[in-house]
């Protein structure tokens, strides 16, 4: 429902922001406005919007700097961004430079002048895309490990931990109940070990991609995990930097193997 969607407009042209704000609010979006980069950064951290409309602000280069800050921030790096650039005759004053545009990682791009109503379907597409989150089940018999993984994944806007399992048998049952996209699976667990659970899950719920997360990082275990049907294998010692990348990779259908860091 759009009533829960929060949108931040960053633009220093009152006429444009007022018209766009009214248009979005008439469709039940919650809208806030910032007229410069520093104010936008404050509102991003306080309000945590679902999408950012990055319009024109002066001096030139401020919009690109805000964009870079968002993409480098751990909390906002996956925030959907719609860039609304200056018209060609004003590009020298507040538009994006060529080199800035080449580094742009926006999800959509338009130029002024543009009617606010024309932006609504673009914004809705961005929100619909961003709403789809990767559903993850964490299977590990150590609560401390599960808590640590959850803490890391809770920082990601595109990943949601939907449940936890304390052993292999519990993992199989939770997969049937919760239908996760990705299962983070420890190898050594009671009742049923992670490799046995992986075989069952891959046979009964092939939609769920299993990513083995273990302290036993030798090549033999990685090969055994692959034969069991796992899509990836990550050493727990490497998980801090590679866990999120591994989840996204196997969710997309790609194999992912990272050995322990030396």
In short:
The chain is of the alpha/beta class and 262 residues long.
Q: Strand share of the residues?
A: 15-25%
Largest sheet: 6 strands, parallel
What's the structural domain tally? 2
Overall spatial form: elongated
CATH topology of the largest domain: Rossmann fold
What is the CATH class designation of the largest domain? Alpha Beta
Note poorly predicted spans: none
Number of helices: 11
- Give the CA-CA distance, first to last residue: 48 Å
Helix content: 40-55%
Description of the molecule:
This protein is an alpha/beta fold and 262 residues long. The chain has two domains: 2-131, Rossmann fold; 134-258, 3-Layer(aba) Sandwich (Rossmann fold), CATH 3.40.50. 44% of the residues lie in helices and 20% in strands. The chain is built from eleven helices and eleven strands. It has helices spanning 14-25, 37-47, 62-72, 91-94, 98-102, 116-131, 143-153, 168-178, 194-204, 219-228, 239-251; strands at 6-10, 30-34, 51-54, 81-85, 108-111, 134-139, 159-165, 182-185, 209-214, 232-235, 256-258. Strands 7-6-8-9-10-11 form a six-stranded parallel beta sheet, sandwiched between helices. Helix 1 crosses helix 6 (116-131), helix 2 packs parallel to helix 3 and helix 8 (168-178) packs parallel to helix 9.
Provide keyphrases for this structure.
Rossmann fold, 11 strands, 44% helix, 262 residues, five-stranded parallel β-sheet, single chain, 11 helices, alpha/beta, six-stranded parallel β-sheet
List the helices and strands and how they pair.
Elements: E1 6-10, H1 14-25, E2 30-34, H2 37-47, E3 51-54, H3 62-72, E4 81-85, H4 91-94, H5 98-102, E5 108-111, H6 116-131, E6 134-139, H7 143-153, E7 159-165, H8 168-178, E8 182-185, H9 194-204, E9 209-214, H10 219-228, E10 232-235, H11 239-251, E11 256-258
Parallel strand pairs: 1-2, 1-3, 3-4, 4-5, 6-7, 6-8, 8-9, 9-10, 10-11
Helix pairs in contact: 1-6, 2-3, 8-9
